[in-house]
Write a structure and sequence with these properties.
Number of strands of chain B: 10
Shape of chain B: elongated
Distance between the termini of chain B: 111 Å
Strand order of the largest sheet of chain A: 2-3
Oligomer: heterodimer
Helix content of chain A: 25-40%
Structural class of chain A: alpha+beta
Low-confidence stretches of chain B: 1-10, 214-238, 325-351, 482-493, 507-516, 542-547, 633-641, 781-806
GO biological process, one term (chain B): cell division
Radius of gyration of chain A: 25 Å
Pfam families (chain B): ANAPC2 (PF08672), Cullin_AB (PF26557), TPR_ANAPC2 (PF25773)
Mean pLDDT of chain B: 72
Largest sheet of chain A: 2 strands, antiparallel
Low-confidence stretches of chain A: 1-16
Structural class of chain B: mainly alpha
GO molecular function, one term (chain B): ubiquitin protein ligase binding
Protein name (chain B): Anaphase-promoting complex subunit 2
Largest sheet of chain B: 3 strands, mixed
Number of helices of chain B: 35
Helix content of chain B: 55-70%
Strand content of chain B: 5-15%
Mean pLDDT of chain A: 76
Keywords (chain B): Cell cycle, Cell division, Mitosis, Ubl conjugation pathway
Number of strands of chain A: 3
Number of helices of chain A: 3
Strand order of the largest sheet of chain B: 2-3-7
Shape of chain A: elongated
Distance between the termini of chain A: 64 Å
Chain lengths: 106, 884
Amino acid sequence: MEGERNVASLQLLCPKDMLAYFLENWLYQWHAVSSWTWDAQDETCGICRMAFDGCCPDCKLPGDDCPLIWGACNHAFHLHCILKWVNSQSAQAHCPMCRREWQFKE
Amino acid sequence: MTCDTSTAGCGLEKLESLSDDSITEISENWNGFCCSSEALLKGSGDLSFSDEFVMRAKNLCKHGLSSLVEQHFLRCIEEIFERNGAKRFWSYFEPYRNAAPSETNKDLILEEEIQQVICKALEEISSQKQFQEKCLLLLARALQSYEEDKLQGQANPDSTRVYLFSKYQLIVSSVLLASLPHHFPGILHWYFKGRLEELSTIAAANFEDEEELSMDDKMDLDEKSKLPYKCGDMDSDINHKYAVFSENNKLVKNIGMVVRNLRNIGFTSMAEDAYASAIFFLLKDKVHDLAGDDYRSSVLESIKAWIQAVPLQFLQALLDYLGDFTSCNDPSPGLKSPLASHPSLCYSGTGIPSEGLVRWQLRLEYYAYETLQDLRIAKLFEIIVDYPDSAPAIEDLKQCLEYTGQHSKLVDSFISSLRYRLLTAGASTNDILHQYVSTIKALRTIDPAGVFLEAVGEPIREYLRGRKDTIKCIVTMLTDGTGGNPNGPGSSGDSLLEELNRDEESQENTTVDDDINSDEKQAWINAQNWEPDPVEADPSKGSRYRRKVDILGMIVGIIGSKDQLVNEYRVMLAEKLLNKSDYDIDAEIRTLELLKIHFGESSMQKCEIMLNDLIDSKRTNTNIKATIKHQPQPEQRDLDVSLDNLNATIISSNFWPPIQDEAVNLPEPVEQLLNDYAKRYTEVKTPRKLIWKKNLGSVKLELQFEDRAMQFNVTPLHASIIMQFQDQKKWTSKNLAAAVGVPVDVLNRRINFWISKGVLAESMGADSADHALTLVETMNDTGKSGPIDGGCEELLAGEDDGERSDASVEDQLRKEMTVYEKFITGMLTNFGSMALDRIHNTLKMFCIADPTYDKSLQQLQSFLSGLVAEEKLEFRDGMYFLKK
């Protein structure tokens, strides 16, 4: 009887209220797992050919330590890779992929 | 007369020149000599014929017949000795022909009897010998005086006597030995054994008294001091014991007399054999008695002390006694065995033990070492099983081996016991590894160079290579010490981790060692520490690798390459990290640091990133939650609260082992939470986004029912299953599977967890494949009452399914090997059939490009048998074919 009453009351609740209900009743602590990925079109860096989700050859830790950077042409590279490239060009640097003038995306 | 002809050789001219007178004189004298010598020898102690005997002998000598006289007399003596002495002597022992040698016969009366018989027989034969010697002395004097007359006193006064006596001695011993009954040595042995046992019981009683005394004295002192005797104590002990021993001098004298008599009749070496073997017998008994099956204490010292106390004291007394006697009247200096003492050097109370005694001591100690060593080697397996506790036994064994140098015995016997007891299908891999580690540790003590260890370890390594779960067990051993379960049974893990720690300190040296440009100082130190390899070393194996016996290195050696080990470690680490619901990874960081030192930074790079991910996750998690507080969004109040209930581990999936991704439908609210979390993540970390691995992670649930509250720590799948029951109390398994988004069979497996916990009840529905499931609201519903009521259930539910969230090493291997599948099929199309070796070699030869072929023969074999199972290949007579 008691159970049926609970069901009945549950069905009356909208989803958010229901959440509140079982937070009250069935406490839980959810530990989820996810993986992060760079939101880029390509998989690998055009310069070092390493995965974006990995890191450039000079880095040890991916993610914050080895970020991606987008050019005005919308091509993405490891920051360290493109900086190396840009610094090695004596005159104006071009995007290694499309040969347009390299500008960091604002 | 035959004797006459023998003298003919002296010179025929002499014979011709003999006048009739002299012939009559000679024959008269000869007859007189024969009679008198017979009478002399037969007369019991009566020397009345001596004058006539001496005169006749002298007369015969005058005619140049001295050698005839001599020979005749010796022959007479020999005959009489044989007839009377030897026969009677042996007849004493006749009754004991069968009784004596049997060891089990502990008849005290018999023993006593034999003891008396031996004494009596020896005494009698000695007195007979003495008497004959007296007679011989007469002859010697006669010959002597003749010589002196002839040469006017220029002859060596003693030469004749010495010559005759040595000849006589020879006759006596050869007569006796020629008629030696075979049981006599046994009787002697028995006799000495009995005497020595008697002595040792007396000595042991003294020993114990003293020990008690000394214990009383030292009661308040450190306990250690009573175990091994200190040197200073030892001296005083010995002195004291010597005094006690002199009380037993009677016994020793008794034995000494027997020995002396035995020596007297030429049985020097036999007597020595007998008492030596009796002493060794006693020593062996003592060693077995002391050593026994207790490996927790060192026995070597007490054995040595015992040798000092009993057999050496006895020998000292014996040699003392014999020495006194023999030095003044030694009839047979040439007949001594090399082990007999030199009486002139005998211990004479000056405190310097005689050379003979020292020799005996060395001999006894060697024997004790050898006995103990054999005993320990036979039990080495057991000793190593309780290794850290049995260290004293190992230490003993080490000393014994240093002394005896019979390492090869150890290796052979240990290997055979390993084969018989450890390397069998029944032993678990963990046990084998544990024993291996103990073996390494124990043998490292015995032999720091690791030569024997190499020989012993080889069969174990060989065997472990054939086991599938070896790598897993090794990694568990490596990591479990830090796993934070101190009450767990796997204490072996601790020992390996300890090893890691220990290596950390020694690593500095070894890295320098490996460096070619190591500084010269270090090189000099290394050169100075150089020691030649033991002779048993196998020259085909480079000595360079032998230098450092490091346990981890040897463990890695089982697997062959560290990469495999690191890989397995990574998989296990991943599993462990993904199941963590907090971010506490201190223990893992420590282990990783230690492993990094050992395996090199670069090979542990990925593992480091994994740990770093967790640290980052913690930070990001806090950040994301902080943003909520800073910018409250009123329309999402409910979720604000609930975001506290969500934590996330964010991984860099490229660096983690392949993770099985299963689709799960999470409960709606959780789904919302995740989306919200991801959104916030993207805000914080643009332009990065999150991809949820919904089947991974852990959920802490507290289910509250009317009559109970239960806590669970479960996988997300379990959680989402049970949460479905919040909307709806009754589900059929098909519907539930659809709602959760997993196949029915997977669901059924998971549902068993909740059923077993009494949360869900299962009942057969109309369709047999479609069970009806209901939530058990009150315990009474199922009639169960139990301790779970209101209790807390802590369990990571995923584990009892035996399912791992990430791909195992084998799966990885299969994935890697599929690259070669087309190579293999290509090869087989060309060649028709190939053996395993050939495939392996061909792959090695041709696959040098991008995916370099670096697999072992075993790995290839398991891959090929996989292909056979998939019916792509066929395997017949050791050859692989393409399936047609």
